[in-house]
Amino acid sequence: MLDKAQQLKDEIIRLRRDIHAHPELGFREFRTAKLVADTLAEIGYTDIKTEVGRTGVVAQIGTGNGPTIAIRADMDALPIVEAVNTPFKSTNNGVMHACGHDSHTAMLLGVAHLLRQSFAENGSQWQGNVRLLFQPSEEMFDENGISGATAMITDGALEGVDNVIALHIISNAPAGMLGFNDGYSMAAVDSFEAWVRGDGGHGAYPHQGSDPLFILSTILPAIYAIPSRRINPMEPCVISLGEIRGGAAPNVIPGEVYVQGTIRSFSEEIRAQLWVELERMFKLAEGLGGSYELKIHKGYPAVYNDPQVNNWMRAVAQDLVGEQAIVNQSFGMGAEDFAYMTQAAPGAMFILGGSNGGGNHHTNVFDIDENVFPLGVAMLAETARRFVMGK
Asked: What is the pTM of this model?
């Protein structure tokens, strides 16, 4: 399978560069979805559904009965001005594929090629189906808290699916590395906004009222102490602040300070406790003569990698490239809405190292090594082939 994927390398790179040059934000992937659907039709797929989860594409190949495995790739880009100067640099100013979703989509189209070839050659031996999920809007929720995965699930994309798999390319991991982790592997992510309020007043007379900047300066150490002093140290979690905004003049004490940040955790019990502890810390404002308002926005759950599904993919990795390429470790506190899919069907995501010395994810200099694409394609295609052939 890896040899066959290598033969498709130039085509996968061509597709990735086409998508990279024309990035689209979440739920606006109209051109990308059309490219995907048109390419699937050219390959020979007839069971193609568009506008699934608004701009998603779903295709299926197989017997029409028996078990079904789904393979997911995300299609959306980020609101970033690209600084990497390549011939396929973004032509959509202010939008960039800075997380590798262009490569995920191109690799899944490569998988579509290989599975179509496998079915043409050995369809009589297939005992099930493979469903290809090209998902919109992994990076963002809409105004109603809907992401691409939840939108596709609502539209029935995972109905009848027994297992679901995916990969994520990583720009700061060695090219060709294959990473696996059983159980919770990527964090649940929530965000929060808070307003700390006081009386405000003249900077020369701070004693005449309550100062929300001073109040917040007391609250901040308490927030940062939550993971280390309020949570069991055996439970991974993070609270980070991303913005503090308040005041407009050097001699004016503002009446309000705005704060926002992110909350990361793995277990649902710790997730709930973090919410309670955050509320407790902001409540300190009341004891210091001020008040507060806190809004917590629930985000993606943690990604749970099913150990059995992971073992299928580990076995494929062992056969394709050998034990030396396999790394078993947690993926960190990043988040992925693939978590919703693994709640709907047992599944797993593996990491594909793709470092070429370029920048990290979600930066304007993000870049990856395109030479790893055949390995990603072969991993997904061979896992699916063994699934439908009962091996």
From this structure: 0.95
